[in-house]
C-alpha cells in the first residue's frame, strides 16, 4: 500500500453530521481518485480512504436507510 500525504487537504464536515457535535464525519473532496474520511472529534485517530465508487455506494446505502 502506498503512503498518502493528507497534510495539505481541506476537510469539510459532512452535511449529515449532527449539529450538536455528535456523529461528526469529515471528508476531503480535493484528493484525486480518493475520498479520505475521518472522525472530526478525533482527527488524529486515523483516516479511512475509499475509492470514488465505493464511497458513492456507501453514501447511497446510508441515504436509503436514514430517510
What characteristics describe this protein?
single chain; 67 residues; alpha+beta; 4-stranded antiparallel beta sheet
Average pLDDT confidence is 85
How many strand units? 4
Distance between the termini: 36 Å
Question: Rg to the nearest angstrom?
Answer: 12 Å
Derived from helix and strand composition plus strand pairing, the structural class reads alpha+beta
Biggest β-sheet strands, sense, barrel:
4 strands, antiparallel
The shape, in one word, is globular
Strand content: 15-25%
How many H/I helices?
Answer: 1
Numbering strands along the chain, what is their spatial order in the largest sheet? 1-2-3-4
| Poorly predicted spans | none
Percent of residues in helical segments? 10-25%
Our count of domains comes out at 1
At a glance:
By secondary structure, the chain is of the alpha+beta class. The protein has one helix at residues 52-66; strands spanning 11-13, 25-28, 35-39, 48-50.
Amino acid at each position: 500500500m502506498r503512503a498518502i500525504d493528507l497534510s495539505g487537504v481541506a476537510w469539510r464536515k459532512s452535511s449529515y453530521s449532527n449539529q450538536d457535535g455528535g456523529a461528526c464525519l469529515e471528508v476531503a473532496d480535493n484528493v484525486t481518485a480518493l475520498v479520505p474520511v475521518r472522525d472530526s472529534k478525533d482527527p488524529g485517530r486515523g483516516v479511512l480512504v475509499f475509492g470514488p465508487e465505493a464511497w458513492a455506494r456507501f453514501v447511497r446505502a446510508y441515504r436509503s436507510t436514514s430517510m
